[in-house]
Amino acid sequence: MVHFKEFKLEEKILRAIEQLGYTEPTEVQQKVIPVVLEKQDVLVKSKTGSGKTASFATPLCELVDWEENKPQALVLTPTRELAVQVQEDITNIGRYKRIKGLALYGKSPFARQKLALKQKTHIIVGTPGRVLDHIEKGTLDVSKIEYLVIDEADEMLNMGFLEQVESIIKLLPKTRTTMLFSATLSEQIKKLSSKYMKQAVSIEIDASE
Ligand code: ADP
Ligand code: MG
């Protein structure tokens, strides 16, 4: 049995994970967490419900520098519901390190998000349209973004967000770690990863397992 204690995680993160009732890391977490902790790019294919969120939320909470005032990680999700869910998972895992996550999504007042963005935030989770809007209007400073996660990439492309995702990536610092997660890998996703990722480690969890 593999235990979360085998990863290089600080006690504050391990305690939060334990309180979530996660005793053993799932297969995708076993494979992805050590790679992200080494700041390597990853392309991950693993089915829905396999625990992909904690596989990036855990190392992100570990890696972000609490002292830094500007956002250091950006997670893109296809829907508002997912943005909220991922933001909650990050808040839970980062609880004892006091990691501040913020969800940004459309059809919600821009002004309120603008105000929230004036507060110290470590990790931004959002849908592509609204995130791009904030970057372009100067209300979201991406100059310190070191980590980019493209979550549910297949859904993201099915919903027609490719152009916006690419526009966002082009505005981010070049030196960063990029992680792409998907339940399925299409040619379009592979193309996206080869275009914007550097020597990505490919992790595919077999659906039959
Ligand atoms: P995916 O993104 O792969 O579809 P999620 O990250 O949403 O999957 O996780 C699915 C469910 O499994 C969630 O309810 C989550 O809380 C739970 N979960 C994640 N990791 C673990 C773990 N190591 N042990 C037990 N439950 C877990
Ligand atoms: Mg997911």
TrEMBL record:
Family, per entry: Belongs to the DEAD box helicase family. DbpA subfamily.
Domain-related comment: Contains an N-terminal domain that binds non-specifically to RNA and a C-terminal domain that binds specifically and tightly to hairpin 92 of 23S rRNA.
Annotated gene: dbpA
Function: DEAD-box RNA helicase involved in the assembly of the 50S ribosomal subunit. Has an RNA-dependent ATPase activity, which is specific for 23S rRNA, and a 3' to 5' RNA helicase activity that uses the energy of ATP hydrolysis to destabilize and unwind short rRNA duplexes.
Record localization: Cytoplasm
Motif residue range(s): Q motif: 2-30
Name under which the protein is recorded: ATP-dependent RNA helicase DbpA
Domain DEAD-box RNA helicase Q: 2-30
Helicase ATP-binding domain boundaries: 33-203
Coiled-coil parts of chain: none
